[in-house]
Amino acid sequence: MDARFTAEQDEIRRTLRELLLKRCGPEEVRAAVRTPAGYDSDLWEALAGQLGLPGLALPEAYGGVGCSVTELALACEESGRALAPSPLLSTAVLAAPLILALGSASQRAGLLPRLASGGLTAALAVPGAGLATALGLVGDNRGDWAGGGRAGGVQARRVEGVWRLYGQAAQVLDGHSAGLLVVAAHTGGFARSRTLLFLVREGAEGLVRVRQTSLDETRPQARIELRDVEAELLGEDDPDEPDVPGALAAVGDTAAAVLATEAVGAADRALERTVEYVRQREQFGRAIGSFQAVKHRLADVYVAVQAARSAAYYAAWATAHGEHVGGLALAQALESLRTASSEGIQLHGGIGFTWEHEAHLYFKRASGDELLFGPVHRLRGYAADAARLFDGGEVTV
Questions:
Q1: 99: Cα separation from own chain's centroid
Q2: Distance CA 320, CA 62 (A)
Q3: Cβ-based neighbours of 102, under 8 Å, separated by 6 or more
């Protein structure tokens, strides 16, 4: 592994950081999340149309840039520093790779160029609150999370050659504003039980989308209700049993690596802001940053952030080399973000405990991401199980 960044990668980071510093400060973030879409559409146009972020990891044949997951992860590290609300995660990290992996030739040709340009946004809808399970981050995703043939979840039936969906999915990232939904649904009953993915277009009859209140407003979520909605099967009309759980798990590992770098960017920025503050705030006639106890606390945070950054970068690189360490990297990054944001609130003193302070945005991001994609102990536990680290309570050497 070559740990050095290329000139192109450095340029992506520099250009994106400059743009976000100008247009995505704390007040701009708060204003953007209160819009109906949940993000600044002008900023999204700049990120997509000018910088091409949604198409970074898509092939050039489909209008993408043709880069690797590493470039997308580095871009998300910068967006994480600013906590920039945008449909980048739901569109480019979760939905587009599934369409690329499982879609038919006509679906890929018709949808991926629009996703790469940012003209179309997409969201992955899975039943209940099981996004981490569906992506194979905290357990085997070949279970009955999509409905299992019983009431609940999302069910799919084929009526006169047309697929129809009914059921509900909660906590769908950007589900209220996405122009395209990729919906996981159960079909086949007990005789041929399986999970398939379906495409539901904006404005479909019987589709109800309700934006929900979320802890982290920069990650807008929605409840999706499917009331006998006509849908299009993702893939060939008569599929030769596509490995949907396998495709979801592959996307989950990549998403974990990207989310890890994003969390590292947020943790790094939270630490920077705290260091700036302790250099200014004075007690007993001197800056509190000069006290040894404060120095020790911030040094521990710095070590944690740097360790998480190394793990996240390695996970992003490893996705293209057949290694699956995204879950472990995500666990370490989320833990470092929680530590950095918590220490930031503590060391800002009384002002840090006010709900309106910027430090709370980072703490909410840490807590919200752990609720969506974790928790940390389950990410680590499943990674240990998958690697067969323990056997009968003893470490296997």
A1: 17
A2: 19
A3: 197, 234, 235, 242, 244, 247
The C-alpha atoms of residue 210 and residue 222 are separated, in whole angstroms, by 5
Strands 180-187 and 194-201: antiparallel
**pLDDT tens track for 288-313:** 989 999 999 999 999 999 999 999 99
Using DSSP bridges, classify how beta strands 282-283 and 221-233 pair: parallel, antiparallel or unpaired: unpaired
CA triplet 216, 222, 223: central angle to 5 degrees? Answer: 135
DSSP state of 79: H
Q: In angstroms, what is the C-alpha Rg of the chain?
A: 21
Beta carbons of 294 and 353 less than 8 angstroms apart: no
CA 186 to chain centre: 24
Domains of the chain: 7-120 (1.10.540.10), 123-242 (2.40.110.10), 246-395 (1.20.140.10)
379 burial class (0-12, 13-18, 19+ CB within 10 angstroms)? buried
CA atoms of 173 and 181, how far apart (whole Å)? 10
Q: Which two tokens stand for residue 135?
A: 């992506």
For 73, 78, 180, 264, 377, the CA distances from 314, given in Å and listed in that order, are 11, 17, 32, 13, 20
**Contact by Cβ (8 Å): 81, 265:** yes
For 94-137, the pLDDT digits (tens) are 999 999 999 999 999 999 999 999 999 999 999 866 899 999 99
**214 Ramachandran zone, left/alpha/beta (phi>0; psi -120 to 50):** beta
Cβ–Cβ < 8 Å for 361, 344: no
CA distance 265 to 20: 13
- Assess contact for 240 and 311: CB atoms under 8 A: no
Contact criterion met (CB below 8 Å) for 282 and 165: no
pTM of the entire structure? 0.93
